[in-house]
Amino acid sequence: MYRFLLSRQWVILTLVAVLLIPTMIRLGLWQMHRYEERTARNDLVARALEASPVPVESLTAPGKKITTRERYRTVTAKGRFDTDHEVVVRRRTDGDDNIGYHVLTPFLLDDGKVMLVNRGWIPADGPSQTEFPEIPAPPRGEITVTGRLMPDETTEASGIKDLEGLPDRQIMLINSEQQAERLDAPVLGGYVVLKTPEPKNNTPQLIGKPGNENAALNYAYAIQWWLFAAAVPVGWWFLVRREKREREAGEDVRPAEAEPATV
């Protein structure tokens, strides 16, 4: 009755179906794992953003690596900006994907240490981008700043190559160890994305809060893959039944007997 399943065509079709089912199940599990990772990341970021501000040196120190739990925490520090040693970070975009710079300004703390402050984004002022751009000055004198703590940037984490031979006072990555060598000073690990004081005329343009990753999309993909996995055996059985019906219908058809000729 089902001997046609032993044909080459049906053996291949069955093997493909058998392989598809566990593959789709694994893809669903991978998407669910991504959903859990993204959900955990969103929860961690939300808790960090909602946490009360703390002094920066309670979370970081020279040479310290910023952990995922410390990332995005709001920190405060008292000191003054050192614009003489200010640099810009190349190839950074704003919310509209316009290419420009991030402004990185050392902030001298009262105890002699240095905190790196990303003051925000400014547009590139020319096609060559070889000249140091004009940057609005931060407030002078001793002030208190608040911002979000961030880990050092690396090529491995960001995908940005740390190019050499750049124009003067231009860098590719914000890295406290590199800046400590350049400044010859104790620099706190990581850097701070400025929140307050806000710049006049929004220049540099402050960097916005991190957005939530779309975890729900991964959840939907996981369900989709599992539905596909369930549909494979159903579809296979539907094809088998249709093949069986067509073969049985073919066997029932008999050629009509020729009628005797009349004289």
UniProtKB/TrEMBL annotation:
Residue ranges spanning the membrane: these are 219-239
- Listed Pfam families: SURF1
Q: How does it sit in the membrane?
A: Multi-pass membrane protein
Q: Hey, which family's this protein in?
A: Belongs to the SURF1 family.
The keyword Transmembrane is assigned to this record: yes
The taxonomic lineage of its organism, from the top, reads: Bacteria, Bacillati, Actinomycetota, Actinomycetes, Kitasatosporales
PANTHER family attached to this UniProt entry: SURFEIT LOCUS PROTEIN, SURFEIT LOCUS PROTEIN 1
- Quote the InterPro entries the UniProt record gives: Surf1/Shy1 (IPR002994), Surf1/Surf4 (IPR045214)
Protein name per UniProt = SURF1-like protein
Q: Which residues form the signal peptide?
A: none
Q: Which organism is it from?
A: Streptomyces salinarius
Q: Which UniProt keywords apply?
A: Cell membrane, Membrane, Transmembrane, Transmembrane helix
Q: Where in the cell is it found?
A: Cell membrane; Membrane
